[in-house]
Amino acid sequence: MALSVKNLKAGYGGKEAIHDLTTTIPEGKITALIGPNGSCKSTLLKTLSRLLPPMAGEATIDGKPIYQMSPRAFSRRLSLLPQHQLVPEGITVRTLVGYGRSPYLNLWGSLGKEDEQIVEQVMAATHTDIIADKRVDQLSGGQQQRAFLAMTLAQETPYLLLDEPTTYLDLNHQVALMEMMAAQRDRGATVVAVLHDLNQAARYCDHLIIMKDGALMGEGSPQEVLTAEMLAKVFRVSAAQHVCPESGKPMVVVKNAGLTEQMVVLPDPGWKRGEKAA
Ligand code: ADP
Ligand code: MG
To answer: How many domains does the chain have?
Structure first.
């Protein structure tokens, strides 16, 4: 069951980025998808959410090929918060969140009383109720991210895919988001999130999938996969796994970036070379 890909090949313009990926996202758990930039995390989520058709192999949801479902049925099963959003002009947060109800609307496309209630509940839960009447194109990056998250949650799907949901959020909202994911999981949802903070992943997620260059590098519990060897191989840092004194969960401590690619050292700028300003 759950979400699976088997011998998946996917990419862009006929060029493969994911070459042969087989993995399963366990049902009813929080899975973190981690890996360096360009490792195909977003490509995998786009494939699973039918935004990017596979070049070969298969993707299944609850044991069925994802393309066997009607678009409406699929959008009631799975929702995606994409990494990049086109910010719509001139609409309010409340209107945007209402778009999340599209899979449930009647022929006339208007929100019913229940839809409106769900929109209000989701805005309260994501702390977007205080900006409900503001225009989305006039919000800060983090506020926009919360508005799009609210839209995704309004879709009320048992599978929730979040691509870098914490990137623009302040610390308080990051923690709130991790707790929201836990609450969704505890209500039976399957949550997948692309995260860059390994300690947030280790603390809040049940399962990790580690990718690099479009290939699977490891999968399992945070304790199993966040080993010094893996961190060196995948992230090129010298790091160790410890136990978090607060949560008792695994915690990654980076010792040094000795394995990191060296930044190129720029030559001295003009003001340092003593050149006169023009
Ligand atoms: P990640 O999310 O892990 O940072 P992506 O899945 O976005 O990585 O990208 C994986 C690879 O696919 C990268 O080499 C990237 O350049 C390429 N890629 C991503 N999106 C596109 C696109 N729309 N067109 C062409 N190549 C793309
Ligand atoms: Mg990405």
So the answer is: 1
